[in-house]
Specification:
a-kinase_dom; 7 strands; ATP binding; disulfide bond; transferase; serine/threonine-protein kinase; two-stranded antiparallel ribbon
Length: about 180
C-alpha cells in the first residue's frame, strides 16, 4: 500500500512537471512515472499485490540511493539529466519538503520510485522518511542545462536556523505611534 501511495503521488508531481516542461521550447521528452496498482486477491494466502505495466525490457537505474545513503545519478544521458531536473523541481515545488530519490525504468517510463521527506504523516508515514537525504541533495545536486531552461533556482545547502528572541523584531513601546486626542 505504501509503495502505491509513494509511486502514485510521485506520478502526480511528474504530470505537473511534464506540463511545465512541455511549455518550454526545446525541452523535449520528459520522464513518466507509471502507475502502480494495488490489487486485492481474497482467496490468496497473500491477499494484496501490486501490479504495473510491463516495461518491455530490463530496468536501468537512473537516480539511486546507495547503501551508504548517498544519492547518485547514473551517468549523464539526457534521461538521467532530466530525472535529476525532476528531482530538483519536486524539491523546489514542495519548498524542500519532498524529494524523489530513486528512479529506474526503461526509456522514459519510470518505476520503483522512492521519496525522502521531513513531513510527518506524509502518505501515511508515521515518522519522517530519510530527511538527511534532503540536506544531502542541496549539497550534492549540480544543476544542469534542463534545470536552467526551466528556471529552477540554484540550491544552497541548508543553513542551521538560529533561535531568535521573541522580542527581536518588535518595535519598542516608545517608538510606537501615539493616538492623537
Amino acid at each position: 500500500l505504501q509503495e502505491c501511495k509513494i509511486q502514485n503521488s510521485s506520478r502526480e508531481y511528474c504530470k505537473i512537471f511534464a506540463a511545465e516542461a512541455r511549455a518550454v521550447p526545446d525541452f523535449g521528452a520528459v520522464p513518466e512515472i507509471i502507475p502502480l496498482y494495488l490489487i486485492y486477491r481474497p482467496s490468496n494466502n497473500i491477499p494484496y499485490a501490486t501490479m504495473e505495466e510491463d516495461l518491455g525490457g530490463p530496468c536501468e537505474q537512473y537516480c539511486v540511493t546507495e547503501r551508504d545513503g548517498s544519492l547518485v545519478a547514473r551517468g549523464t544521458s539526457e534521461i538521467v539529466l532530466k530525472c535529476c531536473t525532476f528531482q530538483h523541481w519536486v524539491y523546489q515545488w514542495t519548498n524542500g519538503n519532498i524529494l524523489v530519490t530513486d528512479m529506474e525504468g526503461v526509456g522514459w517510463k519510470m518505476t520503483n520510485v522512492r521519496i525522502a521527506t521531513n513531513l510527518k504523516g506524509y502518505q501515511g508515514l508515521k515518522e519522517s522518511c530519510f530527511p538527511s537525504l534532503l540536506e544531502q541533495f542541496t549539497a550534492a545536486h549540480q544543476c544542469n542545462h534542463y534545470c536552467s531552461i526551466l528556471g529552477l533556482k540554484m540550491l544552497e545547502p541548508a543553513k542551521p536556523k538560529g533561535s531568535k528572541s521573541p522580542s527581536m523584531g518588535r518595535k519598542s513601546a516608545q517608538s510606537s505611534p501615539q493616538l492623537q486626542k
